[in-house]
Amino acid sequence: MYGTRFWIACAAVSCIAACDLDTSLAPRVELDVVVQATEDTFSADDTQIELTEVRMALETLEFTTEGEMHARAGLLPALHDLVVPTALAHPGHSAGGEVVGELVGRHVVDYLDAGSTVGLATLLAADYSGANFTFTTAEPSDGLAEDDPLIGHTFLLAGTATRGDVEVQFVAYVDQDEDRSIFGLPLSFTATESSTEQLGLRFAPVDPEGDTIFADVDIVSLDEDGDGFVEISADENSEAWANLRRNLQVHDHYAVEVVE
Amino acid sequence: MNGWTLAAAIASRIAHPPADVPTEPVPVEEIAASEDESDAETVREVVVHREADQLSASAVTVGRREIDTMPKRGAEDLLRHIPGMHIVQHGGQGKGYQFYLRGFDAVHGADIETKLGDIPINEASNVHAHGYLDLSFIIPEAVEGVDATKGSYRLEQGNFGTAGSIRYRLGVPQRGTRATYEFGSTLRHRMSLVHAPKGRGKETFLAFEAMDDQGYGQRRHAQRLTSIGQALLYKGRGTTVTAMGALYGARFELPGTVRLDDVRRGDVGLYDSYTDDSVGESARAIGSMQVKTDRGRVRSRTSAWVQARRFSLDENFTGDLLFEDTGDRHRQLHAAVSPGISTQLDIRVHPRVEIPVHARWQADIAEQSTDQLTPEGRTWDTPRDLAFVQHGLSLGTGVRTTPTSWMLLEAGGRVDVFATQVRDRMQDREFGGATAAVSPRAMTKFMPFDRWQIFAAYGRGVRSPEARAYTLPTQAAENEDLSQYAGGQARITQSDSVEVGTRVQPGILDVGVAGFGTWIDRESVFDHVSGFNVERSATQRLGVEGDVQLHPTSWLDFGADVTWARGRFINSGSPIPGAPPLIVTAKASMAHPKGFRAGVRWFLLGARPLSYGAVAAPATVMDVNIGYRYRWAQLDLSVDNAWNQQWREGEYHFASHWDPERPRSQLPTVHAVAGNPITARIALTLHFDAMGRNKSSGR
What is the spatial distance between Cα B22 and Cα B35, in angstroms, rounded to a whole number? Predict the structure, then answer.
């Protein structure tokens, strides 16, 4: 009967269409996240700084894409935007907003140990335009010794500050609020399933505009007893500590780079 | 009759159309005088198997026979018969469906204007989704037909008609009183009662429905009570006055989605749910009045209505991804009153020229809130608490002309103005604004021969901005969490659509082909899943739709259609996530005079692109309905998914975290909404007016 043949044909088409065709997940790649070399000697105003230790505890490094954010080009749109200001859904900072890659978990990053591996990130195949991470406070479970001074803190910075003939050793323990994050680190990278690059996490004590992490933190003058050693902590010198803490919240002091 | 015999019969019918089919053109005046609400443009074609507006190759009407003979669980299922349409229920029956049409992911109705008669059903700025469509209050037995126009070509297509427009027409052609009880394998109990008094027109009826369905799998229990009544109050002197009222209430569970990786590991079943307390409620009341006049040269149709609406959802799609301590469970509340009025004038200024005029105003006076809930259901945060009034005003006019007997042209334009006043109780601030858009529309049809039509159309569709879009910041704060930033301007989204097609109707065959394209320069959407206002880049949708229908007898119809749509973001070339590129449907419908009836629908849903290269599985499903009526008793058996395919009606790509033993990954992954497994329903209908009559008059 005609109808029978018709439905047999439908069944055949169904089998062809449906058999062994299951949902395929988004293609992804795993790439190492490594530490990029940090500029360990720099000038802060009239003080020469040499860093001997820079360690930071972070939680979950995310890589983001702009997705299909609207971008307009041309003279007329530009004129229009002059008159009618436009905000975009995921604006600014050369970054997108949709998380499609990540290095999950807690990590202690030693910024002076260039080339060391932070972890293995998983990235969906996509065009990446930004990165985020969240500060945390270090714990023994992060692989640290029980007496590691970073425990309980987000940052440990140590080094030498020199101004003229005066040299001061310093160590700074900086805590950031839980869940405080850095958003919108610029990143330009296209990940494919066959990508082999590494992603480098860099700490920049001097940002591209020349501002240092020690802006408004005069280490030498903090050595009031003249013993040549300064500890910067919330208990010892709260104003300098607060300034350093604030400076370390500025995203310009961090970068994520593609390492070929 | 074997297949070849039938084929010969079909060929014979093509060569020699039946004598009862008129072959002379029908003049505009005759059609205009008819009670049919389809427009009066039909000039030359006379064999109208495929109903609808006859002004585009793809417009379609789901007629009463399909409604009667095809399997259906509710009024939304009638939309499955529209070529190029795919609908997904990611809640229980009672939650609005998700709609896909011709490369559009219309979410819960944002791109599909839907009306009940002249009453807009899309809920502007609904807390769950802009343009939210809840059609569960419509009783299928009270629907005379569903008209679908794809694209935005008609002057009367208004807000949300960026992908197309749908109109449910109420009416009960089969007069009398009948009651139906339906029992289903999902412990479904449904009772309906339709009273359509004889001696009154099809527009007069009273329908009632009560339903309780456990649903398949977990957390799909749904209950609803609904009633719709309509009556012709006055008819005379070229004027008819009709009143309609509806009352509806529903409570339904919400299964949400399941992660595909969990399903593949066996941690959760496809038909399972992660939650055990997600639930929704929905209530609606409508009152409306329609006045139609026909003064010869001027015809008018004016409708006034008021709707009251209350809606709540308590759901969780992401586990504890966003809020580790409390979980992401949230409750959305929406209450609205929406009065409105519309009028349509058709002024004949010349035997071949009409001036159509459309005007509409509707206000949506609403309150809405979103509460974040603890797992125990206690509110711990209220991120949204709004009260707003939105006005939508439109005016459209143009010209409709038949300059020759083989050409029809409708062209014009409309202006849509949207004004919004919002009070954000969380910010304790008021916001507001108004925006307007002009939309040109043009359609033309050529009829080189009686049974051959060629169509071309262009139109611009509009979608209003959401009320809450006015409350969002327009500048990002320094070092703002970009994944949380909810910016973007409140703006009208406009779509430009073109369609070129042809339809050939030789005898019992009806064949149509249409090529279409839709472009959106920038799209302002509030993503209800993420809760962000997003302005998306330009998109285009290109595609082809073809259908073949065969009407070998007055009681038997066959049909098949194919829709291929290629939806892309223009800049990136990435596919529009979720929108099916390929939908193939075949169906057969029989309503034999001896009392047998049957309906079969098979469809193939092609592989659907998701974001970032993921691809949702294709699916194929067949639904069957058979029935027989003997005098006053009618028995129907429906089987959904007769091949018991384990298919996934919807697949989505987003991040969630449900298993505390697994890392909290922000990476999107595939989540699935299970399509129904094989289910069966048996329904007994008693036709009270036929009781005690002889056999022949009982049918």
Answer: 19
